[in-house]
Amino acid sequence: MATLDDDSTAGSSSGNTGTDPEPTVIPRGHNDSDSPSTVEVDHTVLSSTEQVVYEPTSPDRAYQLEMLEVSLKQNIIVTMDTGSGKTRVAVRRIQAELERSPPGKIVWFLASTVALCSQQFSVLEKAIPAVQTKFISGDDGVDTWTNQTLWDAFLKDTSIVVSPHQVLLDALSHTFVRMEKLSLIVFDEAHNCVGRHPGSKVMAFYRDSKDAGLPIPAILGLTASPIMRSSLDYLEVIERTLDSVCKTPAMHKTELLSHVNHPSISCVKYGPQMDESYTPTMKSLDCVALGLDIFQDPYIIHLMVENTERSRIALAKALEKEDTNIFNQVRRLQRKSATVRRELGEWAVDFFLSTAVAQFLDSVGKEDATFATWPVKEKTYLASLLQKVETTVPSSPDDMKVSPKVAMLLEVLLSRQQDALGIVFVKETATVAVLARLLSVHPLTRDRFRVGSVCGTSRHAQRRRNVGELIRGDDDDLRDFRSGKINLLIATNVLEEGIDVPACNLVICFDEPANLKSFIQRRGRARMQKSNLVLLMDDPDSSRHTQWQELEQGMKRKYEDELREIKELDSLDDSNEESYVGPYYVPRTGAKLDMDQAKPHLEHFCAVLGSRQFVDWRPYYVMHKVWHPKSRLPQMKATVVLPISLPRELRRVDGENFWYSEKNASKDAAFQAYVSLHKAGLVNDYLLPLDDSELLEGVETRPPMAFFRPLWMPWPQVAQGWTEAGVDSLLYQRPIKVLDQGQILCEFDMVLPLAIPHIPAFNVYREKHSSWKVEFGELSRAATSKEDQTMRLIDLAYGHRIALKENDQHVVQFRSRSQAMDVDHLGNQQLTQELVTSFGSNFPYLIRDTFRNPYFFEDWLCSRPPLDLVQNFDKCLMEHPTDVPWLSLRKWSRRQDFLHPIPDNPGVISSKPYKRIWPASLCTIDTSDIRDLQFGSLIPSITHMVEIYLVASQLSATILKDLAITNIDAIVSAISSPAAREASNYERVEFLGDSILKLLATVNVAVIHPLFPEGYLSKKKDLIVSNSRLCRAAETTGLTQFILTTQFTGKKWRPLYIQDLLSEGSEEQTSSRQESTKVMADVVEALIGTCFLEGGMMKALHCIRVFIPEVKWYDLDTGRKVLASRSSKSTHLPDYLISLEKSIGHSFQNKKLLLEAVTHGSFSLGTSTDLCMERLEFLGDAILDNIVMSALWELKLSEQDMHLLRTALVNADLLGFLVMEWSIPQTTAHVIDGSVIESIKEKPMWKFMRFSSPEIVARQQATEKRHAEERKVILDALHHSPTYPWSLLAHLNIPKFFSDLFESVLGAVWMDSGSMDVCRGFVERAGILAYMRRMVDDKVDIMHPKNKLGELEATKVVKYEILRYPDTGDLACKVFIDDEFVVEVGGGVNKEEIKTKAAEAAYYKIRKS
């Protein structure tokens, strides 16, 4: 059936199941109001990234990798602008540390605020999911962790800890954590770590350990502004404190600048301040404050009542300074209200006071947790005081009075275009919420800006809260700002540092930045194109921001020593610096490469090499500088780093010489790399990347049908044997028995002048519902004197239809074992009533009519019956008398093929009692036994069976001689195509051989091409296993002349006369037969499978060598050892992979293999020893296929069932789902109220994958979310549904790297163990084989819906038309059969899923109709 679809069906990784939600079927011509009025017809394949919307991400940039390289060699402070990706550098550095650290070490990430810690914890947990990362802050009550046991429990199996500086400082101070326990400390916003800062004190413990010669961690600092004060000496202080050197990208400075946008800066004057007259609400608050009686204060009363020495001292101090919580709260509220009045205006202060008072009174009345740390009496007393404040409801926003400062802010905001996305920084926390409210309701801004606020104050339950801290939703507002729901954020300096905030195009400093650090950090938030930084100032002539910019440039000059020579080095790039590298020539072709061509050639090679998603294939360069005493400028040598999919020796290549110019240094490295690639065979002799024509060299295009040599016939050779057979020559015979339900009907000897192969018993189908069995006895010598009865037997059965030659022998002789035969027995006696009566109903002879046609006798009729009771009447008998005896007869079968069952004839069965009648006087009988005639009728079928076994024997003795296959039956099956309709065909064993060939070819191409990446290996493997290559193997070896493709029907069968065969044998055969090229290839695979069944993998390999001799073939064990010998060895496994190793069920001797198996192609830590999973996944794919094939073979299923089951079991969607389900229990501990609370956390296998692509993080998150929502339905389908869940699995849209991980781990297990049994245990543990057994036992319908629809409409064209709804992005699919609309289904999330659902809906609709 033709299908207008460019995707595969049965092999696809999507489909539907009986437990799926009902597809949304849209009737044709629908007019649903929710449906789009227009749709876009989309005939393109959706990329995987179109299925889920997430923020754009990018691969690691060259300058980030440069910083990583430097950080691996020394302690550094990465100094790059806000938004340039410092955290990305930290993530990579942490990954590298985890790889090289001994067991038990911890990476500690320090950040200045809880909010920043929370953000960085989230980043690290997603970017490095394989390890256990924990976040700890004061909110966790860490100050109550007063013994080592609590800390040890918390840190057990933990690889990364994120916390504020004070947490680590306290732990070090109390020796709960020791410096030697840490492998790396990361200081975010490192510029803060000076003086008495907790980060500086942490480094004091570091210096003590260093001075004592104890192990110390590596240090990594991150900052956008390494100085905070107006002194360049501050830079040296930070470097000394962190024992690090400030570094900024030097070699890739240009790229860094291209990713950093500095805003235009402007200062605006907001005019004179308003008079500071109080509003009525403020005056009422002042009255309450003036009326305070300190002796009524609950705290004072408590001290007086307690009357201890301590309380008396405290009482005196409190009375002297009026220092009580109540007094302080009222004063603070006064100060805040004055600030709000001055900064924002009258409306704002009334709103602030009325809201603050109302929130406090409401909290006290509800007894909620907001002020839970306050003593009850103090809350009650303050509430009684605040109830006296006469708050004024703020005036209508339309009549709002604002300060000149706010008026200028409004003017600035309104001056922006409609695309404004901004942050307003303010100094006072009290101002934040009020200003946010003001802008939300002001008539000039309420319809244009969606306003939120962020203060970042601690929410620890034990922190004492103050009146006037207006309750906000900081987290929600920040999240909404990131998502775009909010476009204006009012914030304190908490948003200056570290917090992940989207790039803005407008930053307004409502108050002047406090210092240079604050200025740089705020400016860094405005990093969109055409962005603005606006400073509101009371002095428009202030040059403070200009001074800050000048100071920043001085700071950069101090830590960017490399920039001093940048201009001079840049001038050298265009100079005539002598180039003395190359050129490189290829003598065979004359191709030439010089240094100037090398970089573009290398970039093109990497681009061609790259095919995997999420992998950055671009080469990058690492510069190494050397200073010479006689030169004021450094020289440099470059190392080019190529993709991780290349072998170690080709991945990092050094330039040959030192250069003053960075460009020349990189050209040199690129030149050396490209020469190495050519020498490694990865670049052709034209100095271009290998293309398919070279990788697949030798693959010819073959049409589906081709002409081949005719089938080899054994009979000329047998006929020649008869001519050479004398009295003393050997003849061979095998006894033949024909049995009916175990009873012997007749026995004959079959005689040939050569050894007759053993032929297994086979059925012959004489009648529609019954069969006989033909059995062959042991081979023995035959007497030459015994009479040949073959032609007499043929004459009995076929003489009435075939003109037989006289005095000529048949090539196969048959001799009766019981009696001699005479040809005169045929129809030589007249039939009489007396003879009939004497035998009764068991008449033993055949009746023959006038034309010698044989019949079975049924009845003696005294006269001719009415013709309307006769089924068949010969008109030539119309004139014969009717009143004489007639016979009722049943016609002898005209069939000559008894090897195949009689097909059902749907014709009408006649009710007439007489099948055929004939006058008795015109009939004769055969006096020979009817069983002789019956045996004679079987001679064509028996001869055919002898023929195919002689063909198989000849094949075994020639092409397959060295294989010594003892089972001729198996060879017959292997060479029998389904079209030949022999008792068995090659389909099952070809399925087996295909898997074995794929496995051996996979291993061997990996051995033969050790430097090839996976993409090249796949093409080389495809070359070997392609149908065109196997067909050529069958043709060149002569196998094609032994392949049975034509069904035996017997219709044109004629006796095989010896003399005729001798004549034909002397003539040269020039004819050919047209056959399927795939059939020829299938037979090669079938013979491989046959050899495997008889002699295991070694014999199968021997067979492969016969047909594909040009490949140097290794057996599995030798190939594995060769591959294993090339892998670097290690007995060390990073801590975080130990639990995965246990879950796999195999203890790796070479731990490097497991590390390689979990390493995605995007992973890069700047080292040359990393290997990615691709080659192991290449091996694992073939191993998985072989394991599943072997398991299916054991169940003795049909080839079709095995094919469908294999497709269902090894498709990427199911493997990906099983990887998501495979979880490893890990114990984690948290400390709550001073007690260790342990819990078991299930970590799925996929989280152990090592990667560097940020896009993978987004895909993992999206997939994890869908999995959590849909796993129960899918699991229920896998365990109970009568149909396979094709579309449910497709709906998950699992990225391929999930299934790649499974196959690569399987490949690693095989590489390390060399045992298929161990590998099978891994596959069993994954649940694949258990589900296979469930599908077989419960007869699960596993055919893909698209295939089912194709079979249902086999003669018609099925077309799938994908529709995309522009407003929602959802997909729908229309199905047409021969251009006739059938059904439309909507609600799809990806192309394959919606097509599968549509196919299922169409299938059931057509069946019902």
From TrEMBL:
Supply the Gene3D superfamilies for this chain.
Dicer dimerisation domain, P-loop containing nucleotide triphosphate hydrolases, Ribonuclease III domain
GO BP of this protein = defense response to virus; regulation of defense response to virus; siRNA processing
Q: Which residue intervals define the domain Helicase ATP-binding in the entry?
A: 67-244
Extract the GO molecular function terms from the UniProt entry. ATP binding; helicase activity; ribonuclease III activity; RNA binding
Region labeled Disordered — which residues? 1-39
Give the CC-aspect GO terms: cytoplasm; nucleus
Q: Where is the RNase III domain?
A: 952-1096, 1137-1314
Superkingdom of this entry's organism? Eukaryota
Enumerate composition-biased segments (Low complexity).
9-20
Domain Dicer dsRNA-binding fold residues, every copy: 598-697
Return the InterPro entries for the record: DEAD/DEAH_box_helicase_dom, Dicer_dimer_sf, Dicer_dimerisation, Helicase_ATP-bd, Helicase_C-like, P-loop_NTPase, RNase_III_dom, RNase_III_sf
One matching Pfam family: DEAD
What UniProt keywords apply to this chain's record, in alphabetical order?
Antiviral defense, Antiviral protein, ATP-binding, Helicase, Hydrolase, Nucleotide-binding, Repeat, RNA-binding
Report if keyword Metal-binding is assigned: no
The residues covered by the Helicase C-terminal domain are 405-570
Task: Quote the PANTHER family the UniProt record gives.
Answer: DICER-RELATED, ENDORIBONUCLEASE DICER
What family does the Swiss-Prot or TrEMBL record give for this protein? Belongs to the helicase family. Dicer subfamily.
Task: Identify this protein by name.
Answer: RNase3 domain-containing protein
